[in-house]
Amino acid sequence: MRIVLVGFTCMVTFFALNSDASIYKMVENAYKVTLVGAFVPLVCGLYWKRATNLGGTLAVIFGLTVWIGMELFQPDGLMPPQLAGLIASFTGMIVGSLAVKGFGPQAAH
C-alpha cells in the first residue's frame, strides 16, 4: 500500500509541475473523477440494501468509460461529460445489483 501511495504521489507531483492548468482546474478535474467513479457506489452502498459488489464494479466501469469517452470524442456534446458519466454509473449500479438477484443464496431455496 505504501508503494502505491508513493507512486501515486510522484505521478501527481509530476503532472502538477508539468501542467499549464490552474490549481482550480486541476481540483475541478479531480472531483469529476470522484463523481463518476466513486459517488454512486458509496451512496448506494450506504443507502440501498440491494446494492452488490457487481453493481459497484459496473458503476465504476460504466461511469469512467462514458465520462472519458465523452471527454475525448464529444467535447461539445448535448450534456456535460460528467453528467453522462454519473447517469451511466447509476445504470451500472442498478443493472449489476439486480442481475445477481437470481444467483444469490436465496435462489437455492
UniProtKB/TrEMBL annotation:
Q: Does the keyword Nucleotidyltransferase apply?
A: no
Q: Tell me the InterPro entries matching this sequence.
A: Na/Glc_symporter_sf, Sodium:Solute_Symporter
Transmembrane segments annotated in the record for this chain: 31-48, 53-70, 82-100
For whether the record's keyword set contains Endoplasmic reticulum, the answer is no
Q: Which GO terms describe its cellular component?
A: plasma membrane
Arranged from A to Z, the UniProt key words for this protein are: Membrane, Transmembrane, Transmembrane helix
GO terms assigned for molecular function: transmembrane transporter activity
User: Which segments does the entry list as coiled coil?
Assistant: none
**Gene3D superfamilies per the UniProt record, alphabetical:** Sodium/glucose cotransporter (1.20.1730.10)
| Record-given protein name | Sodium:solute symporter
The species is: Usitatibacter palustris
